[in-house]
Structures
1.
Amino acid sequence: MTSRDKSLTVRVEIELRVLPRFRVMDYLEQVGGVPTESLSVRGDGWHASIEALEPEAVGRARVPRDLLVIEGQEAAVARVASFMRRKVQQMRRGR
């Protein structure tokens, strides 16, 4: 990466609730990523990881949460983030 490319590095965070990690990893592969570690994926111009968050208390229930972090070149991150937001919305609607 040149110094010019580094200046275009961006980070997007997407909070995930009650979504299976294996499904999120599958979506990241669908968008062109290759797993590098158990919860990390690398694609052309981007990489993503899933970080555990504290569960949220909703009444007596505890809702599992994770944070999807996507970093890399601006255009690549925007494409992956858009794809992932669309997939998360579809999962929430039960599609």
Note: The beta strands are 9-17, 34-37, 40-43, 46-58, 61-73.
2.
Amino acid sequence: MEPATLRVKLTPKASRDRLGGMEGDRLKVYLTSPPVDGQANRALLKFLAKTLKTPPSSLRLAQGAASREKLILFEGLSQDELARRLGLALGGDAGKAKT
């Protein structure tokens, strides 16, 4: 199975960790971690794993290590299942969970 993918627009140094909803085909994520030495990237993977109820070891940063725009791979998860979990995390509005 091909890994599911999710495009993320990350805002580091936010006041709290939270999802910000969809912006086009990207999920907006706000994290308190600073963008220093990969801290925000590690925090992003941990936050997404917890929020989307998937093992942290199944997530991988495929693109955007030094950018706010990221591409995350989810091993062992279908695109449909990722969209379902994302819809639930965003308040059940699966219509906005297009990835």
Note: Helices lie at 39-51, 79-89.
